[in-house]
Design goal:
Low-confidence stretches: none
Order of helices and strands: EEE
Strand content: 25-35%
Largest sheet: 3 strands, antiparallel
Shape: globular
Distance between the termini: 49 Å
Radius of gyration: 15 Å
Number of helices: 0
Structural class: mainly beta
Length: 70
């Protein structure tokens, strides 16, 4: 099997209210609104027949976010 050497990309997801913004390498690729969930936990799901790899995955609180205690 031939190995392909791909250049890694930086995916950034931003959440503000019901607005979700996706950027790849700093370029906005999607901007949607979805008010289905007002709060919750972080999840990452993949549905692909190809191998996906992640490096340096970070989940950071929003700037000026208040702490929510269940």
């Amino acid at each position: 099997m031939m190995q392909r050497h791909l250049v890694p990309s930086r995916l950034t997801l931003g959440f503000s209210g019901d607005t979700i913004t996706a950027r790849v390498d700093g370029t906005e690729v999607a901007h949607v609104t979805d008010s289905t969930y007002g709060h919750g936990q972080v999840g990452l799901g993949l549905d692909s027949y190809t191998t996906s790899r992640f490096d340096d995955l970070e989940v950071l609180p929003a700037r000026n976010a208040s702490t929510v205690t269940p």
